[in-house]
Known about the structure:
Blueprint: H1 4-8, H2 28-48, H3 56-64, H4 70-73, H5 78-81, H6 85-104, H7 111-118, H8 123-146, H9 153-165, H10 169-177
Amino acid sequence: xxxxxxxxxxxxxxxxxxxxxxxxxxxxxxxxxxxxxxxxxxxxxxxxxxxxxxxxxxxxxxxxxxxxxxxxxxxxxxxxxxxxxxxxxxxxxxxxxxxxxxxxxxxxxxxxxxxxxxxxxxxxxxxxxxxxxxxxxxxxxxxxxxxxxxxxxxxxxxxxxxxxxxxxxxxxxxxxxxxxxxxxxxxxxxxxxx
Length: 194
């Protein structure tokens, strides 16, 4: 019995933002979908607008799996994960072990195809997925603020500062051209069919 995909389907049970009061709960499956959409977009912008040599399809699929180890570890809140270098290093080792355990749950013939997806830990794909992860978190903060939840105001400011400090042209392009639409209401979006 191979339990890889059964475990992947359980990503929907792992909540995010555990220390925060949420107006709506977000799980790592929903988050990973949004990160995949954003990572694919960033990689496409990098390739098609800025001439980068990157495969948006690989980046998007790897982003779907970027939090899969959290099936075993849960989602450790950012202030805890990044506040102490010892905790951060230990958690990265735990995540690596969890990713390896997931990979080992696949038949040997499939492992070479999934290994790069579960360990996209370096290069342009990794950088873009990290940027998309921050964008997704920022969008969550914007949505919480729009719902009247002030709990996310500080996180929103910190994430926007982080995003604005990125030098990646594809991130800057996304921020300028697509990010403002997340701050408006449905009525303000142009939904007319022409």
